[in-house]
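Q: Could you fold this chain for me?
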Amino acid sequence: MTVIEVVQGDITRQDTDAIVNAANESLRGGGGVDGAIHWAAGPRLAEAGAAIAPCARGDAKATPAFDLPAPIRHVIHTVGPVWKGGDRDEPAVLASCYRRCLEVADELGARSVAFPAISTGIFGFPPDRAARIAVDTLRSTRTSVERVRLMAFDPKTRALLTATLQT
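A: Sure. Below is the predicted structure, expressed as structure tokens.
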């Protein structure tokens, strides 16, 4: 059974086998968590991303972690939905992001994965709905991943994720 935990902190400094990047389709870097991961991993991450791009919304693809600190070995890139009111399959696409990341983690042999709050930044997905989708999808997806870390950038997100995990 997968243990899910909530941690506030820097996703690029986690003691996990893989981290998830909330990416754009080009996989070359951007703002928010995507920019932070690319900065920490170094320029080879953008080169590797470009080589496997594009990545469709709801899908996931992996690259090496390059200059990220051990034990992180992989970056799993996923492209979440842009919120447009919720009637354009945004919830299903977001759930697919979490499922596909676990599938890719299994293919890589990763036993621990850190996830950001996918699509809740500039993509505008309501954080409370996104948290429920993340927790429900992670709980219901069969995986060999033993530990999932839901990363919170701030205390408000940590409290929201913690409360959602407890229900």
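A (continued): The longest strand covers residues 3-8.
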